[in-house]
From TrEMBL:
Name used for this protein in its record: Lipoprotein
InterPro entries (alphabetical): DUF6612
UniProt key word Zinc: no
Pfam families: DUF6612
Leader peptide range in chain numbering: 1-24
Lineage: Bacteria, Bacillati, Bacillota, Bacilli, Bacillales
Source species, domain of life: Bacteria
Swiss-Prot/TrEMBL keywords: Signal
Length: 274
């Protein structure tokens, strides 16, 4: 399991864009020319998210990974729960990853504040204090939770965007397959990644997006994101080896502006020997 985790995490970074689907509070209706457009909904959702002080994010992810060179296939499932403050930046995250081929599970927990970051990877009771450089990368990734941001910046995707609405939500859908809008999708995905990956032109060239289905649902009144669902099939060549991953990701956003503070418990510092 540990051997495959770096590859799985690398590809997972490529797909941490949000999308929405699930049960709705009414029948979906196609947006009409008299209603707000998909582009306008994305712009308003982007702006609304940037004004949030805090929120909770819950993700459920299933990955099917095939390593052609190693001749292995794996199914990984992950559950990630995060409470997040935007200013000053802070988060508390719990995560569980299960390898369904081996039956092994790995649980981790992390706290981050502007002063320090601690993590427990589940392999021992002792917590570890994370070096400042690694902590900076972690918080930068946690701040990229805005599901509308990169779509708002992207050009050339208007013809594959569609929108429906219910009494509660606007639901924006993006569907792409084959070489359709490959360059635009790569730009969106790379922009959502940490800076060291964005500068990796070789990674961008080796990335092949076979299918990408994405729905984003936002509240009609607040324009805050509510739920997401994304399905993608990606092929990535790493050191001459081809790795294919099919991923399904869904989750929800809640507790908007209701988290008053996040701090590192004294017990965590004691177990870390801090």
């Amino acid at each position: 399991m540990r051997k495959i985790l770096p590859i799985g995490k690398t590809i997972l970074l490529l797909l941490l864009l949000a999308a929405c689907t699930g049960n709705n509070d009414g029948l979906r209706q196609k947006a009409t020319t008299r209603s707000i457009s998909a582009e306008e909904v994305i712009a308003k959702a982007d702006a609304a998210f940037e004004n949030l002080d805090s929120l909770s994010v819950n993700l459920e992810i299933i990955q099917y990974i095939e390593d052609v060179g190693a001749g292995t296939k794996q199914k990984l499932s992950s559950v990630i729960n995060m409470d997040l403050l935007t200013s000053p930046a802070a988060f508390h995250q719990t995560a569980n990853m299960t390898n369904h081929e081996t039956g092994l599970s790995q649980t981790s927990e992390a706290y981050y504040t502007t002063e320090e970051m601690f993590i427990n990877d589940g392999t021992e009771t002792r917590w570890k204090k994370v070096p400042d450089e690694q902590a900076a990368l972690a918080v930068a990734a946690s701040m990229k939770m805005n599901p509308a941001a990169e779509l708002h910046k992207a050009d050339g995707l208007q013809d594959i965007l569609s929108m429906e609405s219910t009494s509660r939500e606007y639901i924006v859908t993006l569907k792409a397959a084959g070489n359709q809008h490959m360059d635009e999708l790569k730009k969106i995905i790379m922009a959502s990644m940490p800076s060291e990956f964005q500068l990796n032109t070789e990674l961008l060239e080796k990335l092949n997006i076979k299918n990408f289905n994405y729905e984003l649902a936002v509240n009609r009144k607040s324009f805050f994101p509510e739920r997401f669902n994304a399905k993608a099939e990606i092929e990535l060549s790493i050191a001459g080896n081809s790795v294919t991953m099919k991923q399904e990701m869904e989750g929800s956003y809640s507790n908007f502006n209701n988290i008053m503070g996040i701090s590192v418990p004294d017990s965590v510092r004691m177990l870390a020997g801090d």
